[in-house]
Request: fold
Amino acid sequence: MTLARQRSQNLRPSELLIPTPAGLYCPLADIHIDPVRPVARALITHGHSDHARAGHGAVLATRETLAIMALRYGEGFAGERQEAVPGVVTRIGAVDFRFVPAGHVLGSAQIVVEAKGLRIVVSGDYKRERDPTCAGFEPVPCDIFITEATFGLPVFRHPPAHLEVAKLLESVRLFPERTHIVGAYSLGKAQRVMALIREAGFDRPIYVHGAMDKLTDFYISEGAQLGDIRKVIAAERKSLGGEIVICPPSAIQDLWARKFPDPVTAFASGWMRIRARARQRGVELPLIISDHADWDALQATIREVQAGEIWVTHGEAEALVHWCGTVGLKAKPLHLVGYGDEGEAEPAGEADNAVAG
Ligand SMILES: [Zn+2]
Ligand SMILES: [Zn+2]
Reply:
């Protein structure tokens, strides 16, 4: 039995998509996907700053991603913009492009690229776990599946996010005098953590750092159920004992954080699986909450889309490529440079994230 679909003989994959220094390029349509440098025409999977950059001639993306880019970079972020409606085909040249939910952050999409019967899915960043703040990932059967591998090692297995949030709320109950400061990426993770806290029944106000209030307001305007969200006023930090404060990861070690009463520092990230990382960052309460597929979810997704060939963009590419080989799938790393600076990137990118978000 083979997992693979029967691939079209009419078109070589490199005619449809090729990796270039600027990002994935489609020669037949003359567009780039998630380009890392300014190009004439860009298709963008989601609003994290390593995928969505300012300065392109024209951008095609979902309505939410366009709005997020405008919030972060200003209305002039691109020469022209065009909205991609999920599920609806946009034809450029002889190529059909279709945006399909990726389950990563609000507005995030996979891009299905298809011509002459050859179908490649560019999944962008994605996760399979339920997220109350965005549409869930929809697997699309394809000939070639292009995947990230941020957490593509067997050590990365993310527990259910609601159990991690339960740990946070238990700590709040045990230490009612202390402020719980939760580091979370400004786009997506922060709002997901807030929504999960609400689902767990916590109904007091949740306080947010000023760097993330615009994006949080946007999520609320798009229907996220975040309850009573208040911006932290610097002068009032001393009075926030017992409260939950969400801030960019870079802020948990700042002087800013030390003005709260006896703070407990938490960090919501897939990297918190690695104890040494939590210690390094002075995180007392690591919360393993990720917006990326873990090792099991990467494998499950690869099996589900039934592609005969897997291309790995960034992250732990070698390990995932090796695994594909063990189950008889053709796979290769693309060595794309410039991704992983936000979302759940290496900590080096976080300062940038705090500014952008
Ligand atoms: Zn990314
Ligand atoms: Zn991302």
Observations:
- Residues 344-357 have pLDDT under 50 and may be disordered.
- Residues 161-174 form the longest helix (14 residues).
- The CA atoms of residues 209 and 247 lie 5 Å apart.
